[in-house]
Amino acid sequence: METWLKISSLLCIFGFLKEFRPSEPYITPYLMSPRMNFTQEQISQDIYPVSIYANMLSLIIVFLVTDLLRYKIVIIADALSGVFVYCGLILFKSLFAMQVVEVFYGLFMAGEVAYYTYIYAKVEKEHFQEVTSHTRSAYLAGRALSGVVSQIIVYFNIMSYYHLQYLSLGGLLSASVWAMMLPSVKQSVYFHQNTVTQSSVDLNEPIDATDSMCRTETRVPLSYAAQHLWSDFTAAFTNAYVVKWAVWWALSTCGYWQVPYYIQL
User: Fold this and answer.
1) Maximum distance among all alpha carbons in the chain?
2) DSSP 8-state assignment for residue 183
3) CATH code linked to domain 3-187
4) Residues 197-228: tens digit of each pLDDT
5) What are the angstrom distances between the C-alpha of 143 and each of 3, 49, 167, 171, 198?
6) Which of 79, 81, 93, 263 could disulfide-link 108, Cβ–Cβ 3.0 to 4.6 Å?
7) How does DSSP assign 196-218, residue by residue?
């Protein structure tokens, strides 16, 4: 198996496991169950909005930290945030505890940035289109399977809403362990870049270009990284096609998350 395909497969397995959360379509009934005993008003006004604002505020920070820490650590932290979320849903019952859980859920959702960008730092540009389709397909396959499993379990009354949380926790624990096996990334877009230096050569020997040039990974100054980031930002958002894509993506994402959050109320 080619290296790029192996790396893509490893990441796709992580994405599939991370999205296997059968309890997610039934979070609202679980929170309103006698065990948790929250009202519909508390859920819609005091609990769910916390994760939305936490996600919005953490997205930019997570993006920068992902590049600074070179992806893998953030992917592991993302999976562990999910583990905390479902441990919280299993163990805690107070309103404040659920709001803390929602903060971590917002961080968990923001951490998808690392999942989607990791692969571009590990494979050659010629494979970008293929690995993009792989990672997105794995994400959707995990969500689809978890939805089907949860529907079957609830329809046939195999498990309660409470026990569905354990299935989700199991998926995220598996994703956390799997994330630790992902190959590390040596360079990133802004803070860690490849530099080319001239190596010492014997002038009496024929010069080989591959031997005389040495590629090393160095951490660039913060000012240079900020300048590079601003340059990319202005280049992207002065492009009409990118702006239109960004607007439609934002609207579609907001619309999508309104459905799973509030259709259960």
Assistant:
1) 84
2) P
3) 1.20.1250.20
4) 444 444 444 444 444 445 555 666 777 778 88
5) 27, 22, 13, 11, 49
6) 81
7) EEEPP--TTSPP-HHHHEEEEEE
